[in-house]
Amino acid sequence: MTTNLTTPASTEFIDILTKTALAYRSKSKDRPQVEVVVNALLQAEIAAKQQKIIYPFPSMLGEWRLCFATGTKKVQRRGGIILGKGFYVPNFAKAKIAFSTNTDENLGKGEIKNSAELGFMKLQFSGLTKYWGKKNLLTFDFDKIELSLLNRTLYRGNVKSRKTANQDFYNQTTTGKLPFFAFFLTTDDFIAARGRGGGLALWIRE
Length: 206
Known about the structure:
Layout lengths: L11 H14 L8 H17 L11 E13 L6 E8 L4 E8 L8 E10 L2 E12 L4 E13 L2 E7 L7 H4 L10 E7 L3 E6 L4 E6 L1
Antiparallel strand pairs: 1-2, 1-3, 1-10, 3-4, 4-5, 5-6, 6-7, 6-8, 8-9, 9-10
Helix pairs in contact: 1-2
């Protein structure tokens, strides 16, 4: 069974994440506790796997602001990682991600911009994305960097540590060593995913 959760069923984790997004956007102090948000994200991830939900690439297009994230901790004895404590991104620091496409949206070929703003300073990485629909997996590869101050570009250049060449990126048959986001929830107001490093993230529509 495949389902598009653009209009999700009413479940507790949806309500919690919706409240989280609304509280963050309005800068309200009445936010769900960190542990509650982490648990809601985990429940959403489990539901997506159990119900075999598939999200279309167009549901992720647009600009999103990072609202909440978790770190990870390495487990020395057994190997692997465990989730670190979650945290709300401070409102004064803007971390954004944007997905776009110049081709047929259903092909899953697009572009990515990942930026961080602090005061009047902005650092942005951009590159290519490929969406693996049946896995809800979005791989990406940055190839450009730009630093600006007061909307004036101070530096623009290429990123040297690339995993693939531009002309080969869309022809990759496996995710390889590329960074990725495994999306497990997308709505009109927010999206949530697990990164390759194991951390969870929640973005709200900007």
